[in-house]
Specification:
Chloramphenicol Acetyltransferase; 7-stranded mixed beta sheet; 30% helix; globular
Length: 419
Amino acid sequence: MATDVVVPTLGESITEATLGQWLKKPGEAVQLDEPIASLETDKVAVEVPSPVAGVIGELVVAEGDTVNVGAVIARIEAGASAVTSATPAVADRTAVGQAEAAAPAEPASAPVDGGGDPLTLSPAVRRAVLEHGVDPSKIKGTGKDGRLTKDDVLAAAQAGSARIATPTASAPAVAPAATALVSTAGSRGEERVKMTRLRKTVASRLKEAQNTAAMLTTFNDVDMTAVIEARNKYKDLFEKKHGVRLGFMGFFVKAACMALRDIPAVNASIEGDEIVYHDYVDVSVAVSAPNGLVVPVIRDAQTLSVAEIEKTIGDFGARAKAGTLKLDEMKGGTFTISNGGVFGSLMSTPIINPPQSGVLGLHRIEERPVVRDGQIVARPMMYLALSYDHRLIDGREAVTFLVALKNAIEDPTRLLIDL
């Protein structure tokens, strides 16, 4: 008897999703609650667990199809034995659906350890493999169930540990799927990949922000000497006591909360013809996920210690890579902090996240010559950028916010005595 696999409830106001990737193939055995598919919503990827133990039967929809909550996407034969391949009708149905969803979106497979079970790659991972010319079968996956993530590919490419070697008479050729992803010299190949639902939503919201808000960006720089010294002095004790590394984001979130309290307009939003002021600070922090940046929210950040902030951000980062962030964790937010410095950005003009009115951009730290006590000295400096909605926030308020933030970072004692 077959059991239907249906699209689970995805969260408030979310009624549909895109079938991003099948994690199991027809004929493969599956355990109770084992993920069999990945759905892409407007905000996050959601895995669909198997409702029973058995064998994957018919795949009702293809990768790239839009599905509604409650719709049947697959059927599982309970207690059946695994078969070697899907029935011709199912195979043909899936192939047609994948062709309609654009062929490049179909997951590639490569043998693991020279043969055996195939390694399924998501479109984002495939693109990273293509760009960096690595062999996915030589990379250890850190995603859920050992699956490869984009970060795994980038790390392997940087380390040079998984480069695709040129086949020789004594060496076996690289897997055909992996070879097909590597451009040959002088080629002008193209790959068309259907935009994910998450990417389309991000594009729509960013354009909406530009069309609606009167955006302006103001800059300042901050001397990171004091924070770096404090971090170097206490990082070992901090990690031993709290079980998490001491980074810079904890300092910036605390400093931002203090500055937002003094300049409440930066933490406010516009709703119709009213201004909504918040007596709490819910900080949206951008973290990297396999399908792009996601923005979970640190609730009531003004009440948290630096250690609690670092733990929360670390948890968000780990679960973003594993694809287990919850939709509720990315709702709301009154102010955003985006750290482009981890990718090497020197300066940027971040775009606000409606209905928020402000976003703080952090950038890389580099030594630059500055004047201190009449002497030119080298200091670790960082550019700060505050983009804000000029309909609500005046230039004076924006500059005052950045100066307050700068003062707190350059003299972290202010964070302790609330100055």
